[in-house]
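Exam revision sheet. Question 4 asks you to relate a sequence to its structure. Input first:
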Amino acid sequence: MRIVGVIPARFKSTRLEGKPLMDIHGKPMIRHVYERARAATCLNDLLVATDDARIRQAVESFGGKVVMTSPAHATGTERVAEVARSLDVDIVVDIQGDEPLFDPILINECIQSLKADPSVPVATVMRIIQEESAYGDPAVVKVVRSLDGKALYFSRSLIPFPRNCSKGLKVYEHIGIYAYTKDCLLRITKFPPSPLEIVEGLEQLRVLENGIPIQVVETRCTCPYVSVDTPQDLEKARQIMALGPRIMCGS
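Answer key, structure tokens:
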């Protein structure tokens, strides 16, 4: 079984333009992501998918592999699918290019889930939210799942809502890494944006609305996790990395 990781990276970001090249302790953010992903033991290959020559140059400068893609893609998933279309591959892992602290364990957990149940063509990850202040934060995407681990819904709102009982309430954050079978990835990128996807601004809802199950694995990783969307997020990532290797996990 051949498994390839793809990191979609674009220069033009609404809230933080050029973020893949933002410096974090002497390295561009895309290099931190690439080096973390390369530590995953399940990947046969790792590629960066971009439409920007500056990102290509940065990745090639540290020995990374790059594939140039169309500038017309509306989502990172579409960019990953373009790359996957020409690859001889069974599983494709979509690794977010703006999460420089992510643990390679997450990649392995997604892949192991797909291997365990071939009937479910998509896998992703969640973790319990420790701080109640995040419950109402729309930037923190929540997920609820069925008793057999399949996603029921993703939302920017608090789910489940504790109407009857708040004691022992567990709320889970969705971590945006996905493993797809190649066939499934190519199929879902042909679907138009779905109603709930448009309302919530969450692309994964397109998968559920089209009847495709998503397995959601509760990660064993306890490391800090930052998705860099704003200058404040970038500074937070820098501060966490400044603490040194003791806060970083491994595969």
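Marking note for examiners. The two ends are 20 Å apart (CA to CA).
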